[in-house]
Amino acid sequence: MFYDGHLVLLLSYAVVWVPFLAAVGVACFLRGTRSLARDIGLQITVLDVLLGVGAGFLARALTGVIEIAFTGRMIGLGVTLGDTIYDGWWVLGTILSPVLLAPFVEEMFFRGLLQRAALRALSLRLSAQSAMALSIFASASLFALLHLTQAASPTGAAVLGLSSFAFGLAAALIAGLTGRIGGAIVAHVVFNGSLVAASLL
After folding, report:
1. pLDDT the model gives residue 78
2. What does the pLDDT read at residue 58?
3. Domain of 153?
4. Which of 7, 57, 83, 99 is least enclosed, having the fewest CB within 10 Å?
5. Are 68 and 145 in contact (CB under 8 A)?
């Protein structure tokens, strides 16, 4: 049977990211104003960087508490880098994809598109505060559900689900309060990057 680890790596990202990017593209360029800044809040300010760095490290610390509560130790969500061959595929799979590309693509979809769409829809029926709270909850919940696909055991699912939900809440709150996804992207970079950095050390 043919098995190519590099192809599996590319397909594992493409199967999730291509639909996300397609949805953002349709919403912005076919149904929106053709401005990522206006349609999904793709902007970044100094405040976004500060909020993102703080939220990313805070969420990573909370993940450690969740891991200890469920397993008695910090497990790093089971991240293992296996036999390391330092080539372009290693850079793509270990650094570029999880630390830079995933935060950008996932935040555009979850906080930029999904959360904003939920907020608009809910605002037609609820108060501004209720609509904001529910859109934040919806964004964080769906973000956590996506990441449950990576769980290998019930304990891993609990840790991964709660950790992803906690991070999703932080990112969604930043996006909701600022109206931009820059802070959420920075938080996601810090959250994922700190795990990768710890795994490499």
Report:
1. 45
2. 97
3. 5-200
4. 83
5. no
Q: Residues, the chain, total?
A: 201
pLDDT average, residue stretch 133-150: 95
Smallest CA-to-CA distance from 23 within 142, 150, 163 is with: 142
Residue type, 153: S
Q: Do the beta carbons of residue 9 and residue 89 sit within 8 Å?
A: yes
CA-based end-to-end distance of the chain: 35
Q: How many domains does the chain have?
A: 1
- At 117 the three-state DSSP class reads helix
* C-alpha closest to that of 104 among 36, 197, 26, 10: 36
Q: What is the tens place of the pLDDT at every residue in 169-196?
A: 999 999 999 999 999 999 999 999 998 8
Q: What is the spatial distance between Cα 166 and Cα 175, in angstroms, rounded to a whole number?
A: 14
DSSP assignment of 118-175 equals HHHHHHTTS-HHHHHHHHHHHHHHHHHHHHGGG--SHHHHHHHHHHHHHHHHHHHHHH
